[in-house]
Amino acid sequence: xxxxxxxxxxxxxxxxxxxxxxxxxxxxxxxxxxxxxxxxxxxxxxxxxxxxxxxxxxxxxxxxxxxxxxxxxxxxxxxxxxxxxxxxxxxxxxxxxxxxxxxxxxxxxxxxxxxxxxxxxxxxxxxxxxxxxxxxxxxxxxxxxxxxxxxxxxxxxxxxxxxxxxxxxxxxxxxxxxxxxxxxxxxxxxxxxxxxxxxxxxxxxxxxxxxxxxxxxxxxxxxxxxxxxxxxxxxxxxxxxxxxxxxxxxxxxxxxxxxxxxxxxxxxxxxxxxxxxxxxxxxxxxxxxxxxxxxxxxxxxxxxxxxxxxxxxxxxxxxxxxxxxxxxxxxxxxxxxxxxxx
Length: 342
Ligand code: FUB
Prior knowledge:
Elements: H1 8-14, E1 29-38, E2 41-49, E3 67-73, E4 80-88, E5 103-107, E6 110-118, E7 124-131, E8 139-140, E9 154-157, E10 163-167, E11 203-206, E12 219-220, E13 223-224, E14 242-249, E15 252-258, E16 265-270, E17 277-284, E18 295-299, E19 302-309, E20 320-325
Parallel strand pairs: 13-17
Antiparallel strand pairs: 1-2, 2-3, 3-4, 5-6, 6-7, 7-8, 9-10, 10-11, 11-12, 14-15, 15-16, 16-17, 18-19, 19-20
Beta-L-arabinofuranose binds at residues 31-32, 47, 60, 63, 100-101, 151-152, 169, 242-243, 291, 293.
Protein name: Family 43 glycosylhydrolase
Site (Important for catalytic activity, responsible for pKa modulation of the active site Glu and correct orientation of both the proton donor and substrate): 152
Family: Belongs to the glycosyl hydrolase 43 family.
């Protein structure tokens, strides 16, 4: 009888939940994890998901977040500390609601929190708030960053100390409404519906030395296919949707993003932080839940992917952040992760 029992390792292999990364915190719902290493410690700047009782729609009104809380970790696999409220929408003079995916940066003794929110007219802009402590509390500037719009700011500081903000998101993120450079509500609620034309591209702007304004107007982040042609609007498995993140490795710039309605995390590689970038593949297959949003950071000798899914709630708008190791092939390409096997 003993011989017919499966070995312990075989039993484990059939139970995929044993291989899932586990939520980093369970006390609150968190999403869109932007991870940074400051002074050797890891800080995560996530969205703080709440249930506001708003039904799901394609504009994401169910993502009705109102504040931010920072997570801190001493070592991979170590205890995760949940900070107090770092910034509340009531303390942002220009913002009314929808405190979506934030990011943070550090320069010259100051920590900067960047966040998208809707103003009183329901239009997304990007705000900035500062603190002397990476956990906050942060004090918001009275106005959004001049010339900013749409969602999902990601600020990358290069080895020459220049910083860049990547941003944008279509559908509920409103990027399609800025296709002329001015807000145009008639552009609708999804994309420009031009499947055989270049897709709407994310934006990048160099930051001024004060880290609170753009040094130059935002420009397109060009994502090209293997033939050097822009990825098309109809190519939903490749085109940019939201969740920009820049990661630099061996002198190459990896522009990474979510494909939204096809639920992949993708990457495209370039030689400059301003692009262009050539599409290179998927990083993460679809997770449980509609959205996928991530960051990539080197820490403790490894490269980590921070991402989220809905393991704790089973609901799209109540997410939990996770981390898992990212592995590169010798040619610099990324080994695609199946979230149900990690
Ligand atoms: O968390 C709200 C929105 O959902 C984010 O801004 C998007 O990237 C998506 O994750």
